[in-house]
Design a protein that fits this description.
Helix content: over 70%
Order of helices and strands: HHHHHHHHHHHHHH
Distance between the termini: 102 Å
Number of strands: 0
InterPro entries: LAAT-1, PQ-loop_rpt
Protein name: PQ loop repeat protein
Low-confidence stretches: 318-322, 324-336
Pfam family, one: PQ-loop
Strand content: under 5%
Mean pLDDT: 77
Keywords: Membrane, Transmembrane, Transmembrane helix
GO cellular component, one term: membrane
Radius of gyration: 27 Å
């Protein structure tokens, strides 16, 4: 307890030295966090689907955020800052607690992504191109999505129970528990983007991932880590180190998404040279018989499956303006 009181006195002195510049920078960081995540929330809602977002990315992200929020709440420096609010001015108290507020806002925003992931999971009326849907034949199941949500909830409750028990019965162990949560959060954050990197690479498009969000968060993550590190110092490495890892991994996903969403000039020219196909407006141009229509019973059973097979065959047939054996085609004498 004496050690905590000494730390509290030192933290109170530091809070009294907080300037307006650092205060407004912290406010801007909070606004930036909210703005960047709102871009992601809007992306999912506007597309009407969470397609393209790996459920394991959501699982690792939420559990990492749970651990990080628990870490900052039980960290001795944070508890000392809260205790100092009775010793310093309201402005100095608010400035000292902005670090906790930053992580809290980020935790809430990522939790909203989990909620939207469940609400808009594989919506049939989603505003998604058919080409993107066909490129994602192995979508996760609803059972997987529910399992992700359950694990996130269980882990969050576990952190709350253990933290409360230590705070009431063994406060001397809170520092070790905070470091444990910090290491856990950093470990989860280090692998958080691996399943998303694989999903994005497999789909070859960003899906419901918001590129503007990543453009804001990638450099903002390093700035956030620097701001948090300035408050907590090297003793709080378990709190700000996770954001360095996250920003680096997110930068990899951002580069991949930019590569797939903005292809090279040659790829754009090749895509534009293809005839546009729309299921509702483009007439079917089928070989007779085609690879699917000749054996429909092997590819489809229901009417919807038959339609999909014929549509797929139509795409292959669009653009063949002249049959091979028509006058002027292959096999003709060239005499009209």
């Amino acid at each position: 307890m004496d050690g905590f009181l000494e730390m509290m006195e030192g933290r109170c002195e530091e809070l009294r030295k907080v300037g307006y510049t650092n205060f407004f920078i912290s406010i801007l960081i909070i606004i930036g966090i909210m703005f960047s995540y709102l871009l992601q929330h809007y992306r999912i809602i506007s597309r009407g689907t969470s397609e393209g977002i790996s459920p394991y990315f959501v699982l690792l992200g939420v559990t990492s955020a749970n651990s990080q929020f628990g870490n900052i709440l039980v960290l001795p420096q944070s508890r000392a800052d809260v205790s100092c609010c009775t010793e310093v001015s309201p402005f100095e108290c608010a400035a000292g607690l902005l670090g906790i507020a930053q992580i809290g806002v980020q935790w809430i925003c990522f939790a909203i992504i989990l909620v939207l992931f469940l609400i808009f999971f594989r919506r049939d009326e989603a505003n998604v191109d058919e080409e993107e849907v066909e490129m994602d034949p192995d979508q996760p199941s609803w059972r997987t999505a529910i399992g992700v949500a359950a694990l996130c909830l269980i882990q969050g409750l576990f952190i709350v129970i253990i933290s409360a028990a230590l705070a009431l019965g063994a406060p001397s162990y809170l520092g070790a528990w905070a470091n444990t949560l910090g290491v856990l959060s950093a470990s989860l954050a280090a692998i958080q983007y691996i399943p998303q990197i694989w999903t994005t690479y497999h789909l070859k498009h960003a899906g419901s991932l918001s590129i503007p969000m990543m453009c804001v968060q990638t450099p903002g993550g390093f700035l956030f880590a620097a701001s948090l590190g300035a408050r907590l110092g090297w003793a709080g490495w378990s709190s700000w180190g996770v954001y360095v890892l996250t920003a680096f991994m997110q930068g990899i996903v951002l580069c991949m998404a930019l590569r797939y969403e903005w292809p090279s000039r040659e790829e754009r020219d090749r895509h534009q040279s293809r005839p546009a196909y729309n299921r509702r407006t483009t007439p079917r141009v089928l070989p007779s018989p085609g690879p699917y229509s000749a054996h429909l019973q092997a590819y489809a059973e229901t009417q919807e499956e038959i339609e999909e097979a014929l549509d797929r065959e139509s795409v292959q047939g669009v653009g063949e303006d002249q049959p091979l054996l028509a006058p002027g085609g292959i096999g003709s004498s060239g005499v009209r």
